[in-house]
Design brief:
Blueprint (H helix, E strand, L loop, with lengths): L17 E2 L1 H5 L4 E2 L8 H20 L14 H11 L8 H8 L12 H18 L1
Antiparallel strand pairs: 1-2
Helix pairs in contact: 2-4
Keywords: Ligase
InterPro entries: Amidoligase_2 (IPR022025)
GO molecular function: ligase activity
Length: 131
Amino acid sequence: GGRDGSHTHYDHTRYYALNLHAVFSKGTLEWRCFESTLHAGKVRANITLALAISAQAINQRSTQMKKTPISENPAFTFRTFLLRLGLIGEEYKNVRKHLLANLEGDLAWRYDKSTYECLKKKQRTDDVRSR
């Protein structure tokens, strides 16, 4: 490369999920984490997710660099993340469906449902004993 900066055109930092190089030159973000597809629902879901994450980044007052551990139920964890982003309600139902389609686990329960039943029975037993 020369003095024109062409040696940094293909800088290694451009090849992450989010490329911020164009922010200063064009005022845009480049998301590089979506696989190519022509399915309209999947394309809409990916665009909506990128917009929701970007909106949260703009509107959030502070951030904390902390890795969220992936639980034993990734579907539930990601669903709650989508809800925190504001993807709530009927209008985002199809978006959530496409984004959660390939994740393992129960969407509604964090732990195995039998765990909750055991807790309920234990609570009832404890209530009877305490009387």
